[in-house]
Design a protein that fits this description.
By secondary structure, the protein is α+β, with helices and mostly antiparallel strands. It has helices at 20-30, 37-46, 88-102, 117-126, and strands spanning 10-14, 49-55, 58-68, 71-79, 107-112, 129-140, 143-153. The longest helix has 15 residues, at 88-102.
C-alpha cells in the first residue's frame, strides 16, 4: 500500500532478500514480462549493486547494476506506478551512474524495449546514446521484441 506521507523520508538503501516481496509487487504491476524472485535472488547472491529508493516504508524505485573491468551494466530500473513522473527514475539513474564512477567504470550499458518510450526519453536526456540493437531479445505478447542497446562513457574528474 502506498502512503500519502510527504516525500521527506526518501533514502537509498541496499536491496535485501526481505525487500523482494514488495519489489515483486512493483515489478509485476510494471512489466508484461517481469523478473522472477529467482532473478532478483541471483543478483543479490552474486553481489550486483542493488538499491531501493524508499519513502518511509514505500518502495519508490529500485535499480540493479553490475560493475566489472571498468564497465557497468544496468539491468533493471523501475519506478512504482504511484511515484512515476516525479523525477525518481532520474534520481535512481543518477545514483547508479555516480556509483559506477566511484567504482572506476568508464562505460555504462543498458538495454531497453523500443516500446518503452518514457525510459528512452530519460536515457537520452541523461546522455546515453543508442549504439545497437539485439534482435528478438525480449519476450513480448505476440512473440519477441528487439532491445535497443544504449551506452554512455563516464569520465573520472
Amino acid at each position: 500500500m502506498i502512503s500519502t506521507a510527504p516525500h521527506k523520508e526518501i533514502v537509498f538503501q541496499t536491496m535485501t532478500e526481505a525487500d523482494l516481496d514488495d519489489i515483486l509487487v512493483v515489478e509485476n504491476v510494471s512489466h508484461t514480462h517481469p523478473w522472477s524472485i529467482g532473478i532478483f535472488q541471483d543478483c543479490l547472491r552474486v553481489g550486483y549493486y542493488s538499491q531501493i529508493l524508499k519513502n518511509g516504508k514505500d518502495i519508490i524505485a529500485y535499480g540493479v547494476m553490475s560493475i566489472a573491468v571498468e564497465e557497468a551494466h544496468i539491468f533493471n530500473v523501475c519506478v512504482s506506478s504511484m511515484y512515476r513522473g516525479k523525477g525518481f527514475g532520474l534520481q535512481m539513474m543518477e545514483h547508479l551512474l555516480e556509483v559506477a564512477k566511484e567504482k572506476n567504470a568508464k562505460s555504462v550499458f543498458l538495454e531497453v524495449r523500443p516500446s518503452n518510450e518514457v525510459a528512452i526519453q530519460l536515457y537520452n536526456k541523461i546522455g546515453f546514446l543508442e549504439v545497437g540493437i539485439r534482435k528478438d531479445y525480449y519476450p513480448a505478447k505476440n512473440g519477441r521484441e528487439d532491445a535497443l542497446i544504449f551506452a554512455m562513457d563516464i569520465f573520472q574528474e
